[in-house]
Design brief:
By secondary structure, the chain is of the alpha+beta class. It has two helices and four strands. A four-stranded mixed beta sheet has the order 1-4-3-2, covered by helices on one side. A hairpin with a 5-residue loop joins strand 3 and strand 4. The longest helix has 23 residues.
């Protein structure tokens, strides 16, 4: 009987270790909700957007997160109540035309 309990405990430890390794090596960049970065003021984020220095943005409720272009890394900020965000595609009126490479 003790052999069965010991065997079960060993398999439980192996499964837990595999689960821990799996979560350890997950890529945090694959899910934007998992982005951790430095907290930046909303004004800095808006300025970076204006000067085309943001590679990726995710907006969920009041939380705004994303990645700057270059070596500045990831960022997080929060939108105040009543902030209105308008998303436009390149080429729309009021949006600058994309620059050729």
């Amino acid at each position: 009987m003790w052999g069965t309990i010991r065997n079960f405990a060993l398999w439980a430890i192996i499964v837990l270790l595999l689960l821990a390794l799996f979560t350890l090596f997950q890529s945090p960049g694959s899910d934007p909700r998992l982005i951790t970065g430095k907290d930046v003021p909303l004004s800095e984020f808006l300025e970076a957007m204006e000067y085309d220095q943001v590679r990726r943005v995710t907006i969920e409720a009041k939380a705004i997160s994303g990645m700057f272009i270059g070596e500045r890394g990831n960022f997080r900020t929060y939108a105040p109540n009543g902030l209105r965000i308008t998303v436009r595609r390149p080429g729309d009126e009021g949006f600058p035309k994309p620059k050729p490479f």
